[in-house]
Amino acid sequence: MIPLARPVIGEREEELVLEALRSGWLSLGPMLGRFETDFAANLGVPAVSAVSSGTAALHLSLRASGVEAGDEVVTTPFSFVASSNSILYERARPVFADIDRRTLNVDPAAAAAAVTERTTGLLPVHIFGFPADMPALEELAERRKLWIVEDACEGLGGRHRDGPAIGARGNLSTFAFYANKQMTTGEGGVVVCPTGEVKARIDSERNQGRAPDMGWLDHDRLGFNYRLSDIACALGIAQLERLADMLAGRARVARLYREALAGIDGLTLPCEDEGGDERGWFVFVVQLPDGVDRDAAIEGMRDRGVDAKPYLPAIHLMSFYRERFGHREGEFPVCEEIAATSMALPFHPELTEGEVAQVGSALTAVVS
Ligand SMILES: *Cc1c(COP(=O)(O)O)cnc(C)c1O
Fold first, then answer.
1. Would you call 99 helix, strand, or coil by DSSP?
2. Domain ranges of the chain
3. Which of 59, 83, 228 to mutate to test the pocket of ligand 1 (most atoms within 8 A of CB)?
4. Residue 163: which region, alpha, beta or left (left: phi > 0; alpha: psi -120 to 50)?
5. Which of 133, 243, 257, 331 is the most exposed place for a label (fewest CB within 10 A)?
């Protein structure tokens, strides 16, 4: 079976993880600062704070934004559920706005229409690595006095039409390093911190609210255990060394897919880069032609030795969100249509031409 994702792990990862193990510093040791410095330099931002997951990064970013219980936060229903769940952790309310059919990111006009007197912030997601329309969302935030937290957990390697890399615009933003992401630490994430003050706060909150000098008894604020171990950071340092190659590998596989799938009538491929917006390749998700049963198509792919999965389900239609907020079908028609017809194909930097060809013939067979 061709798997959906596979991390690239080599001798350098083994070497640095072993170095961490042998150093005796398994957490809050030298690998942590080194990973943060390397990641920040790679992205071109002054500072990041490494944490235990992308979800933890979202949670701490939201706290740093000043969100309060009862606030409304405008976000996208077409995302991994963590972006919306993190809003609930602070007892704020995710208010969804429908997505743009081409980019699959939140539609700035829909976001503007969703803002009410109770809205305090925006949480856009760069879905599938394609940059959300931040110039338009920042203009909305400016006009309505809203904070912004960017979920860049799928966006590593992407770039906005007005210049900055995804996650490097000066907003609070988050990256994630689960094993299927552009780079991995096993589990892990970072918060991009706009100021030293924010970094100090997040460094403290990830470590039970401890004061920066690590005084044993001085916990001067509420905190969490969202630390990233030195073992994970060592893995991350090695992954950053090969990040450019891994991103190039993903872009290569995406080009191969475009060629292999070009002949399938009615199939919608991931949108092309346009107007200076550049995707950081995370997944290769296609929308099936009208009339093709998506779940049967996935079964058919698996019968042909190719893993595939429905990707992504609409958040507002998940049972927890339906029950908690009374959401129903028809609220966000673009999101719902795309969620019902989309399928993720195997995608990682080392996928071979032969494997891409096998995926292509499996897909051709199941849609015809
Ligand atoms: C991966 C991801 C996250 C964070 O995931 P973790 O598993 O907590 O690291 C958040 N948002 C999106 C859109 C993601 O794809």
1. strand
2. 11-241, 243-367
3. 83
4. left
5. 331
Pairing relationship of beta strands 189-192 and 172-176 according to DSSP bridges:
antiparallel
* CA of 181, closest atom in ligand 1: 1
| Ligand 1 pocket check for 105: Cβ under 6 Å | no
- Ligand 1 in contact with 282 (CB < 6 A)? no
Topology of domain 11-241, CATH: Aspartate Aminotransferase; domain 2 (3.40.640)
> What topology is assigned to 243-367 in CATH?
Aspartate Aminotransferase, domain 1 (3.90.1150)
- Taking the centre of ligand 1 as the mean of its atom positions, its distance from the CA of residue 351, in whole angstroms, is 23
Strand 48-51 versus strand 189-192 pairing type: antiparallel
> Relative to the CA of 187, which ligand 1 atom is closest?
9
* 72/10 Cα distance (integer angstroms): 44
The residue among 68, 17, 78 whose CA lies nearest residue 232 is 17
CA of 189 relative to ligand 1 center, distance in Å: 9
Residue type at position 19: E
80 lines ligand 1 (CB under 6 A): yes
For ligand 1, atom 9: residue with the closest CA: 54
d(CA 263, ligand 1 centre) in Å: 33
Q: Give the amino acid at 187.
A: E
List the chain pLDDT tens, one digit each, 368 residues. Answer: 999 999 999 999 999 999 999 999 999 999 999 999 999 999 999 999 999 999 999 999 999 999 999 999 999 999 999 999 999 999 999 999 999 999 999 999 999 999 999 999 999 999 999 999 999 999 999 999 999 999 999 999 999 999 999 999 999 999 999 999 999 999 999 999 999 999 999 999 999 998 877 666 677 889 999 999 999 999 999 999 999 999 999 999 999 999 999 999 999 999 999 999 999 999 999 999 999 999 999 999 999 999 999 999 999 999 999 999 999 999 999 999 999 999 999 999 999 999 999 999 999 999 98
